[in-house]
Design a protein that fits this description.
The strands form two sheets. Strands 4-3-2-1-10 form a five-stranded mixed sheet. The protein is globular and about 50 Å long. Helix content is 28%, strand content 24%. A hairpin with a 2-residue loop joins strand 8 and strand 9. The model is unreliable at 1-6 (pLDDT under 50). With 199 residues, the chain is an alpha/beta fold. The termini are far apart.
Length: 199
């Protein structure tokens, strides 16, 4: 899949929003006093950087909170408040009722796979909820390998085991903001340089 290069639209990546996941180990660790405060902060931060025409790849686990009709409706309302054209990759908490709900969201344009490929400015990204080793780590350039963008771990470290070709885009690693793909590329370039200097 080639992105819409040459447009003024931006591409963002994120994962693990966990809307309505009312457990302290989610919202309290992120610095909030309640799940409601977390929900509202994520929507606000998301929309502060993403414009309506931007593409956003969400790599799983948008919401939890049970599968009943009222909770699903509340989660749908939160998702539809997000700016951008949402491309949703499935995560371990994305149950069949949630997947069916995602498909009805007005801002969701690509529903729902377990993984996807994204080609952008000569870079090749494997998008998955789970961290996946895809690269030949001896390669000299980011453009010579397949880069894994992933979530799931809730780690605050943007790199998996210090590997420059495995980039963690979960909300927890980026202060509950989505990540501009161009910024992720620059961050990975710095990591490649750091790794080479350590050899």
């Amino acid at each position: 899949k080639e992105t819409r290069c040459g447009t003024n639209m931006s591409i963002f990546v994120t994962s693990d929003l966990h809307f309505n996941h009312d457990r302290e180990f989610v919202w309290k660790v992120r610095g909030y006093e309640s799940v409601y405060e977390m929900n509202e902060a994520i929507v606000e931060r998301f929309n502060s950087v993403v414009q309506p025409g931007d593409d956003v790849y969400i790599l799983g686990d948008l919401c939890l909170g049970g599968g009943g009709p009222a909770v699903l409706a509340d989660n749908k309302a939160l998702i539809e408040r997000l700016n951008g054209r949402l491309h949703i990759i499935r995560g371990n908490h994305d149950t069949e009722p949630r997947v069916r709900m995602y498909a009805t969201c007005a801002n969701a344009v690509d529903i729902v796979k377990w993984a996807d490929m994204l080609h952008y400015k000569g870079y090749h990204f494997y998008l998955s909820h789970f961290p996946t080793l895809t690269a030949n780590l001896e390669k000299e350039s980011l453009k010579q390998c397949t880069i894994n963008l992933f979530g799931h771990t809730h780690s605050m470290d943007p790199f998996y085991n210090d590997m420059p070709f495995m980039y963690n885009i979960t909300m927890d690693a980026h202060n509950c903001y989505p990540v501009l793909l161009d910024d992720a590329i620059e961050h990975m370039k710095l990591k490649v340089k750091e790794c080479k200097e350590q050899l």
